[in-house]
Amino acid sequence: MPDATGLELIAQRVRDSVSAEAVTRAAFHREEATLEVAPAAVHDALAYLRDAGEEPWPHLMSLHGCDYLPEEPRLGVHYQLLSMERADRLNVKTRLGVEDPRLRSVVDLYPTADFQEREVYDMFGVIFEGHPDLRRILMPEDYEGFPQRRDFPMGGEPVLFTFNEAEYPRWYD
Amino acid sequence: MTDPLQVPYRERERSVTMEPVDEERLHDELFTINIGPHHPATHGVLRLLTTLEGEIVRDVKPIIGYVHTGIEKSCEDQQYWKAITFVERMDYLVYYFNAMAFCMAVERLLEEEVPPRAQYIRVLHLELNRIASHLFWIATGALDIGAVTMLWWGCRDRDLVLDLFEMSGGQRMHTRYFQVGGVMEDLPPGFEAKTREFVRVMPQRLDQYLSLLDRNEIWLQRTKGTGVVPVERLLELGVTGPLLRAAGHPWDLRKATPYSSYDQFDFDVPVGTVGDNYDRFRVRIEEMRESLRIIEQALDGLPEGPWITRNRKVALPPRHELATSMEALIHHFKLVTEGFRVPPGETYAAVESPRGELGCFVLADGSSKPARVHVRDPSFVNLQALPDMARGGLIADFIASVAMLDPILGGVDR
Amino acid sequence: MTRTKLPDDLRVRQLRAQQLLRGQLEGEDLEQEVEKRLLFTRFEEAQNWARKNALFPLGFGLACCGIEMITVIGSPRNDLSRFGAEVVRFSPRQADLLIISGRVATKMAPIVRRLYDQMLEPKWVISMGACASSAGMFNNYAVVAGCDKFLPVDVYVPGCPPRPEALIYSINKLQDKIMGNPGMGWRERYKAQGTEESA
Fold first, then answer.
1. Which CATH number applies to C56-175: 3.40.47.10, 3.40.50.12280, 3.40.50.2300, 3.30.470.30?
2. Residue A1 burial (CB < 10 Å; 0-12/13-18/19+)?
3. Domain limits, chain C
4. ipTM
5. Is B238 an interface residue toward A (CB < 8 Å)?
6. Which end of chain A is more exposed for a tag (fewer CB within 10 A), N or C?
7. Would you place residue B18 in the very low, low, confident or very high pLDDT band (cuts 50, 70, 90)?
């Protein structure tokens, strides 16, 4: 984990190389370094971090999505970067609104993002532009809705107790 | 007409019958078959769309999702300690590792210290689970390749490990033994003796497996030289675990970023050279031996002390206190009905599971239920290496690659 | 040398057997003796007996219960071949017992149904584990709440996962059912005949 000062240096370097508004926040919480990046600059920021001269982060360990429902912007996509040389992790995250969740795909930088971006699309509806094959991976292909958003209902069957079993007909009725 | 017996084994691309098949006819016969979700390989419901040309695999598309259970969404509805039971059922052979990743993430959010005795007990169970998982892998993997005897032997020895789990946790699988802050209960009397007996017996069993497989001409022909992927490509694809170590890259989270007092143990990490299926097989067998060493050291050096954190806001108080102390009663009540609250934050904790890096991302919003639990499953990411392993090889080598890749579809689909 | 005194009914049986062999029995006595010594059977009973002792499970494991099922079939300790059911056939055309071992996701349900349809009569289904019998712990959008929503089930096995002994017990119960006398279970103990929900 880079410590707080190291994180600030990384944030500054990303701002210098990509653009001034790229990094919105750099947080160091519970010994974990998180760099928050604007959605339009994600691909360039990750490209810089991957080849960043003396301290590159060449491996993407996990790409996952998140729904911060009461807070806006709602959807978050996290990129967990790893450097095996320095045994170091860095978390890069970006926040998207749910109206137009488009991000540029990082499959060309990190081929491991293939299945993982498809999962984020399947579960949250984030569209990754430039992904070679963006279709649903875990749900059936013709499923409608994005299950892991917080406003998607849990589904399932109601549990029958004596006070409500009269309202739900059984299959043999 | 060439004598079929004179053709060298691995260089054959032509038919072995009377006439050699000429090149033009060979190229317009691309045939897509569906190795469906139900197939004789016992690795779970994986669907593979295979494009074949004769017996040579040209392309493979894995299609998953046939055991998708929505565990991550279900966890958002449960308290933290109830979510442990859900998370355990993801990668259903390595239940302790799933629980460990989740508990590590929550402990990091709570800034909770795990007592040293609990850490050693956790390491003990994790390594026992690693051995059990590798035993099941060799049992079913060898069954896929054709060595049926390994199924009986692997399951026989796995039963010994499951007996140990039943002693400490009460169940053979999915024991809910790891809790946030430690382990649920102390080791029962007799556990140490039985584990030492297991550690004494196991190395000669491993030698038995090697004597059955390692000098078997059929096994060597099927696994040597098949399913090779270069290390750079594996790193690009995010593959970790025995697959990466078999290709020569010594990355092991237990050594690189030690967690739960792994740095106090003395063990080696087996690393292969070529990265073919034979190396993956040998790496896992040697990992079992190293796990036995770790278990023995854990038993020898087991410190005294509590087995779960003393912080009553997180762990249940012991039952005898409930009769005397009012605070204990209130803590018990709050923990059981509402659960402990975790301050807002998000974190990612990774452990080294028998398949690779198993990471758990927890987003907490201050209530007693997690707002998002995501498990970065190693099998999900390792499956992306399957097309690279399969292209250009025969379909029999492809089946051997699937067996040695060791995917567990519960983790892939979650 | 004293001979131990034989119990009376054994002496009577011995005398009757002697008379039968010498041809000294007539009429009703003869009929009674012959009935006691011959094993009468009908063709269906013999067929059911053969079927129950040679079940061919379909090799089909879905999730964690599948691991326990493989342990039951493959482990020398809980060994299913003592009951004749060790021959696991992977083709549904050759199997007659479908053990749904594990949670049935919505994507998988039509495939399980197709497998069941491809099996030939007679066929039986064991729903193993909590997730296959009801939704188990996964009462959500992705899991079909019990495989009896699309399959007729003969035996349900509770547990998460059920112990291997529980699965073997369920196969024994299935064998009783095949023979034609399914146990009534708790209804017998509590005299609750007539409380079944379906005919």
1. 3.40.50.12280
2. middle
3. 56-175
4. 0.89
5. yes
6. C
7. very low
